[in-house]
Amino acid sequence: MASKFTLKDHFRESRLVNGRLLFSGLLSVIIFGIVIFRLVYLQVFEYEHFDSLSNRNRVDIEPLPPQRGLIYDRNGVLLAENIPTFSLEMVPEKVPDIDQTLKELSQLLALSDEDIDAFKDRMKRQRRFHHVVIRQRLTEEEVARFSANRYRFPGVDIEGRLIRHYPQNNLFAHAVGYVGRINERDMELIDQKDYKGTSQIGKTGIEKQYEDTLHGSVGYRQVETNVQGRIVRELMSVPSQSGDDLFLNLDINLQRVAADSLGNYNGSIVAIDPRNGGVLALVSKPDYNPNSFVSGISSKEYGELRDSPDRPLFDRALRGHYPPGSTLKPFVALAGLELGVVDEHSKTYCPGWYSLPGSSHRYRCWKSYGHGMVDMKDAVAQSCDVYFYDLAHTLGIDRLHNFLDYFGFGHRSGIDLPNESEGLSPSSEWKRASRNQAWFPGETLISGIGQGFNQTTPVQLAHATATLAMRGISMQPQVVRATRPAGQTDMNLRNSEIMNNLPMQNSQNWENVVQAMVEVIHGARGTARSVGKDMPFKVAGKTGTAQVFGIAQDEEYDAETLERKLHDHALFIAFAPADKPEFAVAVVVENGGSGSKVAAPIARKLIQQYFGLKVDE
């Protein structure tokens, strides 16, 4: 059998192999050329770009938060400061079992569920090698207890930080306000780069109004980091600039006398230097402790404040609406004199009631058997309602409204605090626009004695009183007196601003009304004679009582049968000395009943305190 064999074509195989080698070589050259070209492109043409990116990976910028400016009263007493505090903090990546560690810490330091929930929420927003706060403001006992057990908690330590503190606690709660944690709403309003490294911002009061001044300027440091983001070394730094310190017109001694004088009553007291508009005292009660908000108030504590029927979080001085009652009468009297409706000798007969022409409805005077014949001075001194019913009716609501505009009724006073309310000074146009109703003559009468639709804030009432004291020179109310840049000793005083200089055809009208207010306190039949006892100078004032609810024609007001919340509000305005005023005050005591018995003695104590007299016990 013949055997099979295959003849090989060596030439063809050699040519195939050489072709493949040539192709592989060309492909390698092309690929190598592309790599070389790319390397040259990256190293030469894109060098600066990638060098910058490399530095960004290697170099990090860390913010250096500024120290917040301090706040002082006019005497240099600290009202807001920055104090060191100890906080319990954890580096999560160094803790083997976070839940177990938290459980043991809870047993040692009595951590609440809110503390743990807040920590876990913060941990989600931080890198695992960063410090995360577990709880702030540890007591000395808690610091000592943890220090003795620190070996049991790797990755957990105590750090010292500066936090805001209000050493006067409740006393300036509404005026100074407080700082709190920056929330989402704040983030929408602020320039976020200015708050790098800062967790708190002014929420209310001076802290909010002067946030830009108090906050300061953020600094930064440039650090080199490794691939995990840990700091290797510091390359350079620009220090932060602390915020300016603020010096207020508020006087701690006046503020304390005002707050203490209100006792268990709710209400507000505002005192102003009429010469420059400086706010000397600003009290709203009930109040609260602003320190509770600095590090985050508990839900339980906030709920108690929010749901309290006394509304301690509500700033009555700026936002409380009260009928001015008879404290409006000096302004109505001045309107009558200036507009030529009456003169200082014009008299009205008061039988104890007043009726409109053609009507049998009686508008009662507070004195049921009447005051007899009274002129303007008698009417203010004795607070005769009938005189002002008749005067208001003659003036008409629109002329009265326009005149009260001069004193800022129904307008914001311009005080340097946030969220001030306008109050309400009614007019026929206002009622038509807001209620689609006509104005009735009877509403003019009760507006003339500060009731009805009239609503004023204590700040507004104090500002109007100061303007009256200065015979028409209206100064803008100012809480902040001066600023002091960080690291300096000299203060920059704020300029006083004249808001208006009221036009009066007869300057004697001012003196006639002021003398009528002096009669309120120093006259034989004045409604607040107790205020002027043993005073070394003349004081001008006016009592006021504002009804909380209406009384029918055939009913009598009997405070003893009513709940306290239904008692009349007690009001009083005053300025002293009457001829050269330095001090003006408005007192509003909610459900106080009588302006002469409750509100006026409070004003007397403030006058005594301001002028260095012995304060009544």
How would you portray this structure in words?
With 617 residues, the chain is an alpha+beta fold. The protein is built from 22 helices and 23 strands. The longest helix has 36 residues, at 10-45. It is elongated. The relative contact order is 0.10. Mean pLDDT is 87; it is low at 549-554.
Q: In this structure, how is the largest beta sheet organized?
A: 7 strands, mixed
Please work out how many helical segments DSSP would assign. Answer: 22
Poorly predicted runs of 5 or more residues: 549-554
Question: Helicity range of the residues?
Answer: 25-40%
Shape: elongated
Number of strands: 23
Radius of gyration: 37 Å
Q: How far apart, in Å, are the first and last alpha carbons?
A: 145 Å
Class from helix and strand fractions: alpha+beta
Please state roughly what percent of the residues sit in beta strands, choosing from under 5%, 5-15%, 15-25%, 25-35%, 35-45% or over 45%: 15-25%
Average pLDDT over all residues: 87
Strands, helices and their partners?
Blueprint lengths: L9 H36 L1 H12 E6 L6 E2 L5 E13 L7 H12 L3 H12 L7 E4 L4 H9 L7 E10 L7 H4 L2 E3 L2 H6 L10 E3 L2 H5 L1 H5 L3 E7 L5 E8 L6 E4 L3 H11 L4 E7 L4 E8 L5 H4 L4 H9 L8 H4 L9 H10 L9 E3 L2 E2 L8 E2 L7 E3 L1 H7 L2 H11 L1 H9 L22 H8 L5 H8 L9 H12 L3 E3 L4 E5 L7 E2 L4 E4 L6 H15 L17 E7 L22 E8 L6 E7 L5 H16 L7
Parallel strand pairs: 2-10
Antiparallel strand pairs: 1-8, 2-3, 3-4, 3-5, 6-7, 8-9, 10-18, 11-12, 11-23, 13-16, 14-15, 17-20, 18-19, 21-22, 22-23
Helix pairs in contact: 10-22, 14-16, 14-21, 15-21, 16-19
